[in-house]
Design brief:
The protein folds into three domains: 163 residues, Rossmann fold (3-Layer(aba) Sandwich), CATH 3.40.50; 82 residues, Rossmann fold (3-Layer(aba) Sandwich), CATH 3.40.50.11420; 120 residues, Rossmann fold (3-Layer(aba) Sandwich), CATH 3.40.50. 34% of the residues lie in helices and 17% in strands. The strands form three sheets. The protein has a six-stranded mixed β-sheet with strand order 2-3-1-4-5-6, sandwiched between helices. A four-stranded parallel β-sheet has the order 8-7-9-10, with helices on both faces. It has a four-stranded parallel β-sheet with strand order 12-11-13-14, sandwiched between helices. Helix 11 links the parallel strand 11 and strand 12. Helix 11 packs parallel to helix 13. It starts with 9 loop residues before the first strand and ends in a 14-residue tail after the last helix.
Length: 409
């Protein structure tokens, strides 16, 4: 299951069969959007529901199968339920009848390891209230207060909304600026967009489209040029743009064409600041200079596409890094959200693509094992800028008081 391009907060509903997960969703939505039945196991696969929670805002709720499902088919359903952990911003763990056992303990552990905030809800409290002893147990084992609730009589409904608002990460519902904090109304922004074998037929790639829309949303002017047209355009029009954004593959050409007093960055670095772990990228990128013979590098290409003969991840970046370091290096490339072929600790560097087709949460989860293992991480555009000698200039628009690397201005 992919969160795709929907930027609304994703809230997963988890719990055993017949604990009232679907009833909870209907209560939150104020309408019957999930099938409710007395028979356990009515919900068989994760189902996404888009609506607005009154008092909070638009969200995507994911109704999941019971975590206590059994049998061969049931275990497959549980596996699909667990896969939703890659895309959710908040988890609601539904319990009933003062019951907390291995399924709940295991799920809470996965929430913690995945850095997913969660709320434990004792549903059906109109039939059996949570005991004081049970509430103390939940506080002790989960480190969070139990919320008494009933989808039938809506008890503590407003408190649940308050808990959701307080617990869900702010970045899940507040969209950061793409370029808007760098430009002012009426500014001109040059977007350098090569049309080569990797460019999609008849259209622009998503980051280029996103940049154009963000520029227009900020009442600025987007000027889209191929790399070989930049010099002639600037000489002819005498326009001085407030910012230039280039495809990383033509960084050197863009660096030569755009005057040094005009900020220059790339679409990939723009996305690195927008949805990646930018601070970790800043720390990890200079580690390219410390690579040694025999080191392995993992490239995470978080979408699938037709592989060209001179593909950026599989061919160009490995070639550029090898030439820059002069070392004998090994490279693994993983597309989509597949697992790496080796343990993460076997790598000396992880390079994440811009991530235009996945969410901030998915990128966070993708990089978390490497960061926890102490493996440096960077981004396609930042790595390319570094080996091409223009790293400091490329990150400067997004970094205040950044200490330069010294040799890459």
């Amino acid at each position: 299951m992919s969160k795709g391009r929907d930027a609304k907060p994703h809230i997963g509903i988890f719990g055993r069969r017949n604990n009232g997960k679907s009833s909870l969703i209907n209560c939150l939505a104020g309408q019957d959007i999930a099938i409710v039945s007395e028979h356990a196991g009515t919900t068989t696969d994760p189902v996404k529901k888009s609506f607005e929670i009154t008092g909070f805002g638009p969200v995507i709720l994911i109704d999941t199968a019971g975590i206590d499902d059994s049998g061969e088919l049931g275990l497959k359903r549980v596996d699909r339920t667990l896969k939703t952990l890659d895309i959710i911003d908040l988890a609601l763990l539904v319990v009933t009848d003062n019951t907390w056992g291995d399924p709940e303990e295991e799920l809470a552990g996965k929430f913690r390891s995945g850095d997913i905030p969660f709320i434990i809800i004792h549903n059906k409290s109109d039939l059996q209230k949570p005991s004081g002893e049970f509430m103390k147990k939940i506080k002790a084992v989960a480190g969070t207060d139990l919320l008494e609730f009933s989808a039938a009589d809506r008890r503590n409904f407003e408190e649940l909304i308050d808990r959701i608002r307080e617990t869900i990460p702010e970045h899940s519902y507040r969209t950061p600026a793409l370029l808007g904090d760098l430009i002012n109304r009426g500014d001109a922004v040059i977007l350098i967009t090569p049309v080569d074998v990797e460019a999609p037929e008849g259209r622009l790639i998503l980051p280029q489209v996103q940049a154009i829309r963000d520029i227009l949303d900020n009442d600025a002017v987007a000027i889209v040029l191929k790399e070989r047209e930049v010099d002639a355009f600037l000489n002819r029009t005498k326009i001085r743009p407030a910012l230039a954004v280039t495809d990383s593959q033509v960084f050197v050409k863009a660096d030569a064409s755009i005057p040094k007093d005009i900020p220059l960055t790339s679409f990939s670095i723009m996305l690195a600041r927008f949805k990646g772990d930018f601070e970790s990228y800043l720390k990890g990128t200079p580690k390219i200079s410390e690579l040694k013979d025999g080191d392995r590098i993992l490239l995470l290409e978080s979408c699938t596409h037709h592989v060209a003969c001179d593909d950026i991840g599989r061919t160009k970046i490995p070639r550029w890094i090898t030439n820059f370091t002069g070392k004998k290096l090994g490279f693994d490339v993983v597309a989509g959200l597949d697992s790496p072929p080796r343990p993460i600790a076997d790598y000396s560097l992880v390079i994440q693509c811009g991530g235009c087709m996945i969410t901030r949460k998915q990128i966070h989860n993708r990089l978390l094992p490497a960061i926890r293992a102490g493996v440096p991480v960077t981004n396609y555009g930042m790595a390319i800028a570094y080996v091409m000698g223009i790293y400091d200039r490329a990150v400067a628009p997004f970094v205040k008081n950044h200490e330069t690397t010294g040799n890459y201005l």
